[in-house]
Specification:
The complex is a heterodimer of chains A (225) and B (247). Chain A is mainly alpha-helical. In chain A, 76% of the residues lie in helices and 0% in strands. Chain A has eight helices and no strands. The model of chain A has no long low-confidence stretch (mean pLDDT 95). In chain B, strands 2-1-5-3-4 form a five-stranded mixed sheet. Chain B has a two-stranded antiparallel ribbon with strand order 6-7. Chain B is elongated. The mean pLDDT of chain B is 96. Classes of the chains: A mainly alpha (225), B alpha+beta (247). At the A-B interface, α1, α3 and α7 of A face α7, α8 and α9 of B.
């Protein structure tokens, strides 16, 4: 098994498996965030459950962190290997004649997403880690807010229009990244499903609907503040 | 037709190459691209210059020898043809045409447009065959039942001529379409299934050893392949490797 991941195909399989895992996580994240638009109380309840449940916090969260780091590191490793495999660049290269821009620039869209994640961590994850793991406050409550604090924190975060703009741009690149990554992952694990119409349709729906939904949620909180 | 050719000239593997401009006139639209190159070379020889070195053999689109990167695409702008089957009518009078060698670390330039594609041969030697007892008692292949679908799919994979356009066009210089086709043509047939696990492992190991890049599924290889080899062959190779390592 260890030998498998030493081969070029094995590394691609590992990349695809981490991509499938992250796509499932993204769907779950989107579903919970959508609740903030539909019902603030339900959003608070679910957020508190996710934020305090030991299984989520001490098992799933480390697995997620590993998945994210692994996906990015493997992306860089594969890209370095691919650049090494290239000889001298062509004087004239017409990539648009045979492939989509997004499929040729997954590293670029990935780097934009990485930049977004840094912002997202500063906005939400680091304060959450500080509250729970440094200050030891697992109550989910703050002064001046009736009930749990999660909805209020999310709502306040999107007051700044520049932050909303940055999130929107990042989600456009996420959509592009997913558009190629969704079907590509099937191919990498040896399935031709990614080339079937039904999977391609699901891929387009997933790749554009979820990022559009995230943009919509950010706009909702900005406009209703 | 009057054309301006910008051609990569490189004395040998060690020297630094450069794009050189050659105006050329009186080119018939009915000429093949290689015939146009022959006309240029005749003019260069008559002038006392060295002719442009390029690979060619059958000039019928089946040997896989011609290997030019024309206007940013392997085998030029036409689809499902090799350079020898590309005709000048695909270009317009007055066009400037860029002609470069296939580029990849694993395909070093020998001279001008000639590249060393022996890495493909070594991949084939690593497993692109079946071991058959040729003592005279070999079973007639026609007596082995096989579905029409598998026979057709294997035949489609076997049409790969190993020209290297997939590598040349891939932004990662990946050889996975070539190796996928070679793995598939045997994996689909009963005669090839006996050694399927060793074959895919050995061929993929050799592919990695030669320094080809990783496939990122852009699909450019399938589009530029003169034989229309399907990306499904890469998926099948991935599947075969997973099966051989995990099961």
């Amino acid at each position: 098994m260890a030998q498998l991941f030493q081969s070029s195909i094995g590394r691609k399989v590992a990349m695809a498996l981490s991509a499938f895992f992250l796509m499932v996580f993204l769907l779950q994240h989107f579903t919970i965030n959508s609740l903030s638009v539909i019902s603030p109380d339900t959003f608070n309840e679910v957020s508190h459950f996710m934020g305090t449940n030991p299984l989520v916090q001490f098992v799933l969260q480390p697995v997620l962190i590993f998945g994210v780091i692994f996906h990015f590191l493997m992306g860089f490793v594969l890209d370095i290997q691919n650049r090494r495999a290239n000889g001298k660049s062509y004087v004239k290269y017409n990539g648009a004649a045979n492939s989509k821009w997004v499929s040729r620039n997954m590293l670029f869209s990935g780097l934009v997403i990485l930049g977004f994640m840094a912002l997202h961590f500063v906005d939400f994850w680091f304060p959450e880690v500080n509250t729970k793991f440094i200050q030891g406050d697992w109550s989910g409550r703050i002064e001046g807010v009736e009930g749990y604090r999660y909805y209020e924190e999310l709502h306040h975060r999107f007051v700044n229009p520049y932050r909303v703009g940055a999130y929107a741009i990042a989600f456009v690149f996420l959509a592009l990244h997913l558009n190629h990554g969704f079907t590509s992952a099937f191919q990498s694990v040896g399935s031709t499903w990614g080339r079937k119409k039904v999977i391609q349709t699901i891929s387009v729906i997933y790749a554009y609907l979820i990022p559009a939904g995230f943009i919509g949620i950010a706009l909702f909180h900005h406009l209703t503040h | 037709m009057r054309l301006t050719l910008k051609i990569w000239r490189q004395e040998n593997a060690q020297s630094k190459g450069v794009m050189t401009t050659y105006p050329i006139d009186n080119i018939s639209p009915d000429m093949s691209f290689l015939e146009m190159m022959d006309v240029l070379n005749k003019e260069l020889i008559e002038k006392g210059d060295s002719p442009v070195a390029f690979d060619h053999d059958c000039r019928e689109g089946i040997c896989g020898m011609c290997s030019m990167f024309i206007n940013g695409e392997a085998h030029g702008p036409d689809r499902n043809v090799t350079t020898c089957q590309l005709h000048m009518r695909k270009f317009k009078d007055g066009d400037t045409i860029h002609i470069e060698p296939f580029r990849a670390k694993a395909f070093p330039v020998i001279r001008d447009l000639l590249v060393d594609r022996s890495a493909f041969d070594r991949i084939q030697h690593a497993g692109g065959f079946i071991s058959v007892n040729t003592s005279g008692n070999t079973q007639d292949a026609n007596s082995i039942p096989i579905s029409k679908y598998d026979a057709d799919t294997a035949m489609d994979a076997a049409t790969c001529i190993g020209c290297g356009a997939c590598v040349a066009t891939c932004k990662n210089s990946s050889a996975m379409l070539f190796v996928g086709a070679k793995v598939s043509q045997f994996a689909l047939l009963p005669q090839g299934q006996v050694e399927a696990a060793d074959r895919v492992q050995n061929m993929v190991d050799q592919m990695d050893l030669e320094g080809f890049g990783n496939c990122t599924n852009t699909g450019a290889c399938e589009v530029e392949c003169p034989k229309g080899i399907s990306l499904d062959n890469i998926a099948r190779m991935n599947r075969e490797l997973l099966k051989s390592k995990v099961l």
